[in-house]
Amino acid sequence: xxxxxxxxxxxxxxxxxxxxxxxxxxxxxxxxxxxxxxxxxxxxxxxxxxxxxxxxxxxxxxxxxxxxxxxxxxxxxxxxxxxxxxxxxxxxxxxxxxxxxxxxxxxxxxxxxxxxxxxxxxxxxxxxxxxxxxxxxxxxxxxxxxxxxxxxxxxxxxxxxxx
Length: 163
Hints:
By secondary structure, the chain is mostly helical. The chain is built from 7 helices and no strands. 11% of the residues are buried.
């Protein structure tokens, strides 16, 4: 009796494995290939975005609010967390020139992954984005104090600033 149960499980397992191999062989393989030498990146889709334009006449308090919003609402969660925490810490102390650099950095590149890779130093930062703000972001990204960064900050801290 025991041997028949073992035999049944063995036959079932072999049949399922053979079926899986047959089905998988019929399906095209689609997955991340990474930056391999033969990767032509032909499968990437670039969505054209309107070019970034500096809002020169924008009042500085409005610019800070807009940049706070844009730091929180990104195309990927990693940047939502990273940039919103960075903005919470530094946005209110940035000079007008620094705000301009930050505005350009988070709004001109069309791919949020580029910003993430530059901040984490996984890829070199293009010269046009390299500057004081990028250096601050790279240092912030290193998280030397080992803060827990699992979510974007709440907005309660804004109310404390205005009271």
